[in-house]
């Protein structure tokens, strides 16, 4: 860790990750042309569906080096199918070409949200950053009158994540104006430790969904929560998290207002498929998702 006094005298250059939109534009307008020249082709035409598949399910790292490696692999495979040569100067790549050349997708472990016919009350979709990738997992809250403890939590929560559980329970109790029953809270992707306060908003919505017996739509959340003012605070890795939601097919993502402003200043809001909703206060989420007026 660099001491603050020294850090203050340095110029910080932030290297941000690409959104899926950015990566697709780079692949189509730069990488495809570069590989075409390498193999003496006039051009490489990749269909929209094939490009979506490549970027969203295979080349999922934060940069574009994997995109270049994977596209090169696809081109080589196409050449081998024709005895090591290309039959035309223009090479067309479709969905089947991507699947045959690259095999199984690389999403395993990044989307640990149970698949069911519908989302049940008590389940909220959370977003996190695991290593260099954004990931999705579910927070599931259930009432269990047979347990002795007021709350049991599973799924490897640690540090400030456990504190966020306490904060979320306190706030739900305050809004409902009653003591909460014994709760059993489970976080999926149980092999990965959850540390950090950014799941606070998701925990609050999961517990509230359980208490009101009202299921949430296909949305995801990220943001810290403040117990005194009920505000939703800024978090890190927001672009990676939204990209993970995009891969999962989540329709709407609720993020802190400060993060939304930052994305807006950079002109990145329109580059993501999910609708991005800024949240200043928990009252906004309560009204929109639970029809709960304070």
Structure description:
The chain is α/β, with parallel strands linked by helices and 294 residues long. Helices cover 40% and strands 20% of the residues. It is built from 10 helices and 14 strands. The strands form 4 sheets. Strands 3, 4, 5, 6, 8, 10, 13 and 14 form an 8-stranded mixed β-sheet that branches. It has a two-stranded parallel ribbon with strand order 1-2. Helix 4 crosses helix 5 and helix 6 runs parallel beside helix 7. The longest helix has 19 residues. The chain is elongated and about 75 Å long. The two termini are 44 Å apart. 36% of the residues are buried.
Overview in brief:
The chain is α/β, with parallel strands linked by helices and 294 residues long.
Topology readout:
Blueprint: H1 4-7, H2 20-38, E1 43-46, H3 48-58, H4 65-81, E2 90-93, H5 95-102, E3 111-112, E4 123-130, E5 133-143, E6 151-154, E7 157-158, H6 160-176, E8 183-187, E9 194-195, H7 200-212, E10 219-221, E11 224-225, E12 232-233, H8 238-248, E13 252-256, H9 257-265, E14 275-279, H10 282-290
Parallel strand pairs: 1-2, 3-5, 4-10, 6-8, 7-9, 10-13, 13-14
Antiparallel strand pairs: 4-5, 5-8, 11-12
